[in-house]
Design goal:
Helix content is 92%, strand content 0%. The protein is built from seven helices and no strands. α1 (2-233) runs antiparallel to α2. The two termini are 119 Å apart. 0% of the residues are buried.
């Protein structure tokens, strides 16, 4: 019973395995078919893309060839036109160059004539200037010599006066010093003699009074000794002697007062002599001070004279400096005038070179005003102006022709600037057109749907022409 049951499930499993294998094979086959189909479609799509690219390239090349042919024709026509205009311009320029060569030769001849006349005039002007400078130098040297002589004379007189005054002051100072020394010596001798006399007299009086007092004192002392001895003997005698001694004491006191008064008188005399000596000393000091003040005054006067001499020297030097500065300033001014005249002549020569034949024949163009307008202008100019600006313009009436030519030159300059601006605008426009043409020719990958920009610009320019 176990054998048949085990074989049955194994057969079912094998069948299932076979079915699974078949399903897997079918799936693999389907996948391979899909891959082949996808590869075939990719190859076909790439071939189609390549064919479309080649077709587009052929169309672009054909379109470019057509554009190049049209542009070649247009450029050839433009080149022919430009060559014709170039030949005409070259002919005109050749004619202008020939005329300019003739004008240049004539201008060179005129320039040579003007240069010869200018050199002749400059030689005459230089000769005249040299003569004038010579006269000025002679006058300047004469003035300098006169000023030097005057300065030397004044200097000599001032120096002589200074020497004389210095000698006088030295003599005065010496005399005052000698007088002061003599007075001082005399006062000192008088003072010493008076002092010696007074000293001797006082010493003698003092000796005499001392001797008298000593003698009296000795006598009194002896009397006192006697009275003392007699007192012991008798009282009455002592009283009597006491009265006598009292009288003698009063008398001696009176004599002492007299001697004291004499000494006081002597001291008064000494003080008086001393006051006289001090008075003499004060007088001598005042005299010395007065002499010193006179000496200071004389020194100040001498300093003032020296300052005046130095000031005169500085003023003379300043005059010389101012004269030299004025001479140098005149020379510079003359040099500036000469340079200005040379510049004017050079500008006149340059203007003459730039003149045309018509301007050489008719340098001033006729007025554009009518006859009645010119009459009104002459009447207005003949009337006396009232405004200050109009009165100032009367001084520049001679420059009317110059301003006429100057205004003409300015108008021509403005016209040339406008023509140059117009040519610059035209050149810029042509450059833009050329850039647009080059940008249109550089397109390589796309087919232009619009017409090329050069054709559009050509169409735009044609109606303007």
């Amino acid at each position: 019973m176990a054998g048949p049951h085990s074989t049955a499930p194994s057969a079912a499993e094998t069948e299932l395995l076979l079915l699974q294998k078949q399903a897997l094979a079918e799936e693999e086959a389907a996948k391979a078919k899909q891959e082949l189909l996808a590869r075939f479609l990719q190859v076909k799509l790439s071939r189609e893309e390549q064919s479309s690219m080649w077709g587009l390239h052929k169309v672009c090349t054909l379109w470019r060839l057509a554009q190049r042919k049209t542009k070649d024709q247009e450029l050839r026509q433009d080149i022919e036109i430009l060559s014709q205009t170039f030949t005409r311009v070259m002919d005109c320029k050749d004619g202008v160059i020939e005329a300019l060569v003739r004008e240049l030769e004539e201008a060179e001849e005129q320039q040579n004539r003007a240069l010869r006349s200018h050199l002749h005039l400059t030689d005459q002007l230089l000769q005249l200037q040299r003569c004038r400078l010579g006269y000025l130098e002679e006058g300047f040297s004469a003035q300098v010599g006169a000023l030097k002589a005057e300065f030397e004379a004044e200097r000599k007189t001032i120096l002589e006066q200074q020497d004389w005054e210095r000698c006088c002051l030295q003599d005065m100072a010496l005399a005052t010093e000698q007088d002061h020394a003599r007075n001082d010596h005399e006062a000192m001798l008088n003072f010493q003699s008076a002092r010696d006399d007074i000293k001797n007299k006082c010493w003698q009086e003092q000796q005499y009074s001392r001797l008298q007092l000593v003698a009296r004192l000795e006598g009194l002392w002896e009397q006192i000794q006697k009275a003392q001895r007699g007192y012991t003997e008798a009282t009455e005698k002592r009283k009597v002697e006491f009265e006598e001694l009292k009288k003698k004491c009063a008398k001696s006191s009176w004599e002492i007062d007299v001697q004291a008064k004499k000494l006081q008188k002597l001291q008064d005399m000494i003080t008086a002599t001393r006051s006289q000596i001090t008075a003499h000393l004060q007088e001598s000091e005042e005299q010395n001070q007065r002499i010193q003040e006179e000496k200071d005054h004389a020194i100040q006067k001498l300093q003032k004279l020296r300052a005046a001499i130095s000031q005169a020297g500085t003023t003379a030097h300043a005059h010389l400096v101012t004269l030299t500065c004025q001479c140098s300033a005149t020379l510079k001014a003359l040099q500036q005038v000469v340079e200005k005249a040379q510049r004017i002549l050079r500008l006149a020569e340059m203007c003459h070179r730039l003149e045309t034949e018509e301007e050489k024949v008719l340098p001033f163009y006729p007025s554009s005003l009518a006859e009645w307008e010119q009459q009104d202008v002459h009447r207005i100019l003949a009337a006396s102006p009232n405004e200050p600006l109009a009165r100032a313009m009367q001084d520049y009436v001679g420059l009317e022709r110059f301003w006429q030519r100057f205004n003409k030159a300015k108008l021509e300059e403005k016209a040339l600037e406008r023509a140059r601006a117009a040519l610059a605008d035209r050149n810029r426009h042509l450059r833009e057109v050329l850039q647009q043409y080059l940008a249109g020719a550089a397109l390589s990958q796309k087919v232009p749907r619009d017409p090329p920009p050069l054709l559009t610009t050509k169409q735009k320019l044609c109606p303007q022409k």
